[in-house]
Write a structure and sequence with these properties.
Blueprint: H1 3-34, H2 44-73, H3 78-111, H4 118-155, H5 160-181, H6 190-212, H7 225-229, E1 235-236, E2 239-240
Antiparallel strand pairs: 1-2
Helix pairs in contact: 1-2, 1-6, 2-3, 3-4, 4-5, 5-6
Length: 242
């Protein structure tokens, strides 16, 4: 198996892990966020801790996709490859802050029963999580999706219909984040979920493609056409051909 094929498989697996970990984590810790201030039902803490572990797996997978794809993408668009890796790191950092808010919330509900101001702190932590959930899995994800999809579309490293899913889904989920910010609807709602479907489809389709077939043959290692176009005719490596 070539290095590019291994890179494709690793990146594909990591994309699938991000989807599974994100969905599992939210399902496990959401009851804590939805509960009344100060209340911690039976088993809620353990469920929240498991959800936090899923989120930490998500953080590692998100960071890993940026690192895994960087060597291949940089051959064509070095600046965009670096930008994608940095945006994935930003997304991971925001998600980490959200995880910390959930863990702090569990600790507060365990130890601050009856303490003055505990309810206000409780609501503040829920709000902090909600904002990180909006800025990470929506805004940062939308930006890095659009960037990677653009690179994939131009380079044709994967079939263009897959890239189009990202080109549609990235801006759409960013627009959805703005709508949520201004109170049009809740992020976790039928509308919010529907607008996230294209991004979900993009990541799953990209993952399956990379795992099953890898990058398009003869393109992963090819020189970037836009860069090649900058070299004047008759010039090879800076030396005029005879």
């Amino acid at each position: 198996m070539s290095s590019d094929r291994r890179t494709a498989v690793v990146a594909g697996v990591l994309f699938l892990v991000t989807e599974i970990a994100a969905i599992g984590g939210l399902a496990l810790y959401r009851p804590v966020l939805d509960g009344s201030p100060g209340a911690l039902g039976p088993g809620a803490a353990d469920s929240a801790f498991l959800g936090a572990l899923c989120e930490l797996v998500l953080v590692a997978a998100v960071t890993g996709t940026g690192a895994a794809l960087y060597p291949v993408v940089r051959r064509r668009y070095e600046g965009m490859a670096l930008g994608y890796a940095c945006l994935r790191l930003l997304e991971a950092a925001i998600i980490t802050v959200g995880v910390l808010s959930v863990l702090t919330l569990v600790t507060l509900r365990r130890e601050a029963v009856g303490v003055e101001g505990a309810a206000a702190a409780d609501r503040a932590l829920v709000a902090l999580h909600d904002w990180t959930f909006l800025l990470g899995p929506n805004v940062a994800l939308g930006l890095n999706t659009a960037l990677l999809a653009y690179v994939m579309y131009r380079s044709r490293l994967v079939p263009r219909f897959i890239a189009v899913l990202g080109l549609v889904g990235g801006p759409l989920i960013c627009a959805s984040a703005v709508a949520v910010m201004f109170g049009a609807y809740e992020q976790v709602s039928v509308t919010g979920s529907a607008l996230a479907v294209p991004v979900f489809a993009w990541e799953v389709a990209l993952a399956v493609r990379l795992i099953v077939k890898g990058f398009e043959p003869d393109r992963a290692g090819a020189a970037d056409a836009p860069h090649a176009a900058l070299v004047p005719a008759g010039v090879n490596g800076g030396v005029l051909r005879a």
